[in-house]
């Protein structure tokens, strides 16, 4: 976490606590300031060192907030915040994870009932105490009760977008050590799962203790959970990070083993057994001449773990130094980590029909981005320039149209859209890549769009997304999304379920039915690369790929740096077996033109 992120998080916590105590307006000011501190290119500690005036130069940061920022950077705390925490000793993040519960609700329920955490919230709801509190009713109470389990579950797993930067940072600091030969992330992060339980890192080295020591001293490590010989665990940014150190000649086997998934490993290990081979975290061994239990290798984990390490290095080593070699020695093409979920990848690898997965470098442009015409913070030219700087061949602006789910006059109506066309043409003169004029239209609860057909017809590209009525049942959701997909002007179905990972589950439509409709109407299904969304997910992508519907990997960027989230979308598409040829925005400029026309 950069210092800017850290300061922003404190300001947001302050805003939540202020709001919970009934303060008006100020919380909004603190949240806006937090956002700008987070986005600010200069390190906040350097500005703070120059003084309050330098900090107050940041957009939306006034003198009072600047003083608090300097106080925090200098002393490590904000006195007023510390006082508020004492006044309101609640698990704010846990409680507000419940859909429909905001800081104000937290404040009211603490005052009335002394609720401080999820367990107490659930107990109070079950006992019917919440509906007795003024301002609350039976419906609210029932909603809380319904939403607590999802909130609880979501507290246990970290979003990929939060964990991956931590893993990358740890990896970089380990790779810097002299004695480290190779270093890789493994586990669910390497498979790019949308949420992860913990971060797993693997290092190849002849040394042990100095690496463990460097790891527990790593800047971002807040606490050491355990430190042993050849392994250690720390807590960083709220997430557990596990490190294992192995000998270089065993690195490939260990990488294969610790990448998982468990189900994939079982399938691969069974294939080894069929060939009189034994696969474990130390290597792949030929055990055809070995008698007895050590050779059994029946995939029984308890046995493998209970055995002495040396007893597991039995027979002749066939592979283990590099991971591809392990797969090849089993007559398999090397299987990309994103596919390792035991969903047919082992059979495909055996038969030489693994997909040619899309890669981050394949993207030629982003088809879903925002500007300051709606809720983005940057101009059309700034966003398009940022796209150009990332090597893209084209850029598509899709600001929000008005409609359900758009609050506070954020969306563009028909006349705004017409006006924006002229602004796009103007910006296009300043930028070296073509800018297309699109829109993110709202899919209403019935599947209709809230922008008129004539306006949609005049645009280069239409992304249609659901933003409201996300609690619909499966049948309603399916009909709704199919209708949107079949709309003659819709090119891309944006973030199809509307889920926010760890915040709200979103729609749960029949993905096969939507994929089939998208395929026959020639509409792309978006993988929204915002790490809070990753929507469509891998399973949905796979249904689309199998149905022959195109995929669009879009960032939905509201600021230039959010264009860099594209990698999360690409790896999510890979989890859905998407090939480069399946991806609409991997097509050339002409390819895109002929698709949208
Ligand atoms: P997570 O952390 O819950 O998101 O999921 P993973 O897949 O990262 O699981 P984790 O951290 O428990 O272990 C990392 C990998 O190591 C896992 O995918 C497979 C492998 N592994 C760990 N323990 C075992 C085990 O007891 N048996 C087998 N077969 N594999 C294991
Ligand atoms: Ca893990
Ligand atoms: Ca682990
Ligand atoms: Zn949207």
UniProtKB/TrEMBL annotation:
Please cite one Gene Ontology biological process associated with this protein.
DNA repair
Molecular functions per Gene Ontology:
class I DNA-(apurinic or apyrimidinic site) endonuclease activity; DNA binding; DNA-directed DNA polymerase activity; phosphoric ester hydrolase activity; zinc ion binding
The places in or outside the cell where this protein is found are: Cytoplasm
In terms of SUPFAM superfamilies, this protein maps to: DNA polymerase beta, N-terminal domain-like, Nucleotidyltransferase, PHP domain-like
Provide the Helix-hairpin-helix DNA-binding motif class domain boundaries.
53-72, 93-112, 128-147
**Record EC number:** 2.7.7.7, 4.2.99.18
Tell me which UniProt keywords the record has, alphabetically: DNA damage, DNA repair, DNA replication, DNA synthesis, DNA-directed DNA polymerase, Methylation, Nucleotidyltransferase, Sodium, Transferase, Ubl conjugation
Q: Which cofactor does it need?
A: Mg(2+)
Domain called DNA-directed DNA polymerase X: residue spans: 1-341
Q: Report whether DNA repair shows up as a keyword of the record.
A: yes
Q: What does this protein do?
A: Repair polymerase that plays a key role in base-excision repair. During this process, the damaged base is excised by specific DNA glycosylases, the DNA backbone is nicked at the abasic site by an apurinic/apyrimidic (AP) endonuclease, and POLB removes 5'-deoxyribose-phosphate from the preincised AP site acting as a 5'-deoxyribose-phosphate lyase (5'-dRP lyase); through its DNA polymerase activity, it adds one nucleotide to the 3' end of the arising single-nucleotide gap.
- The protein in question is named DNA polymerase beta
Organism annotation: Halorubrum trapanicum
Q: What is the lineage of its organism?
A: Archaea, Methanobacteriati, Methanobacteriota, Stenosarchaea group, Halobacteria
